[in-house]
């Protein structure tokens, strides 16, 4: 017997591909079901506009009143009333109050209503409607009321109901003994409110508020509920507080059956002192069995702030701190991820002028491992940038200066002051054919270092001076092919050649020997080497490791453009570094390149169809003499919220290890994955993803999300299985894996706004969220 096995992802892709013709504009469909004002909305005082009355018959008792019967129409400004019989009270020939007897139909630019008997003040904005069946104009919202007393500010409804569902849809409604709709503030107050689902009452509240417009209102937001194999069942209920037009807060209590309560407040503000966000997460006692420190609270604090003041000053803060190293492994938080390995804490104050800027800043990393040396914190760090074009004839001058103090949490590591000057003079030459930049630069750095306080701390050189000149020539041009390889396309070539020279100086005395052996410094790390990075001045970020250079970098990009649309459809870049002499920072072989070796990178993008993109990149590391990084991605994207992406990622073990300051990973990363987000119909959207490490032969993460949308409510189901941190007391090796299996369900009521299908929100979930990896539009 032949067995057919279909994975969840394959079924999702098949479903998506066969649903490409489904309607997906829910907003237009919903708004097509609501009334719209016909004609142009008149502005000004409606009560001072003339009153026009038409009827089959009229009995006028001049000057006190008039009675109209038979298809009566009254029009004044934006409001129009139809009724069977109307008596109009007059004062000196001016209509004042209209009494509608029997059935009526009232319409203006805000509301439509039908009912039985009404009274309308034609010299004001007051009206009283009986047994009304009303519907908002231009937006979703309808209901009934035993009586309605309306004016310019409010509508007071007795024994009333409201729903944002379209006519003939009774999915949900809210009944109230009394309802006050505040027109300008766009919210409603209800007393003795009953919430009904399909006509069945499921919730009662003596008092309730809800929005009837797009303005923010305090109240309950969308809850979230589900189950996790790690956390147990959970329920999360956000509470929104609209403090003022320029600030608000959201407080989210969450209960986990296996952990207890977590409280998560978030505060946003926009003031004269800047804009920003402060947030926290707090668990007093975590009952999770794998958490051993039961008496210790677990918490997170997050603060982002930005301000521009006094026209030339800028200040920013980005601060995240957690209570323990396992926090992001044990909690799903929007403020950090376990894959980052650290939390960042920094600030910066800067003063900006057209030719210079100066800034003082500080940065610290909270790392989440116990082994190896910790990254340095820097405080203070003072930086100066100065620019002056044509300082000499055809020469542009720049100066970068820095003073920084580095300290480490580990007493074994040294501390240091670093003083750096970096003047540069650039001569840009260009014509219609090419450009040539000749740049000279000087790196002058002085270190004042101090041995670590631990007994076993390494001895270190007290003061170090390093002066390195640099010369760079950079030639670029753009050439057009006279005879194109493919008909219908034009082709360009963009060759680039760069020569870089910098003498060698042994820098093993900067920092500790441990740092030097890894090619690290106080703030240095090996740069990722893609095509564009080949033309960087330095192999290392930071200023502590400046490798010698006597090298030629040759590369180029070819591009194809459609003759019909002028759109770029393909590009391919290739580059190579040829070392005329070894590039090194000290005598350690691992920190040097072999003589005459070449580092190179390839990168390409291909838009072979308006809906299809391909991207690939490849990087070769000559220090390791092997492929270091590679990735391939294929994407089908017929429109914004419909996408299918297949990708492959590779990183060699040695490349990963040389960029880690402590533990060694000990394994290549060979990861394949696929993600799909699709609006299947106007009501149904989905997301599915699956990533697998084929080197370890283990799945990394699998997700499925389904959202069902209607005009007045939506529901989302989410299920996932992803790698999680090793529990306390369990073995932590490459052969032992631990997963968290979870699912969740949430409902959302829509009060006439928010028609998002949910695809973009679902694509952001998970450890490996969807990213757009293409640079051809």
From TrEMBL:
Together with LptE, is involved in the assembly of lipopolysaccharide (LPS) at the surface of the outer membrane. Pfam families: LptD, LptD_N. Belongs to the LptD family. NCBIfam families: PRK03761.1 (NF002997). HAMAP family: LPS_assembly_LptD. This is LPS-assembly protein LptD. The keyword Signal applies. The lineage of its organism: Bacteria, Pseudomonadati, Pseudomonadota, Gammaproteobacteria, Pasteurellales. GO terms for cellular component: cell outer membrane; transporter complex. It comes from the Bacteria. InterPro entries: LipoPS_assembly_LptD, LptD, LptD_C, OstA-like_N. Keywords: Cell outer membrane, Membrane, Signal. It is found in: Cell outer membrane. Residues 52-186 form the Organic solvent tolerance-like N-terminal domain. Residues 297-683 form the LptD C-terminal domain.
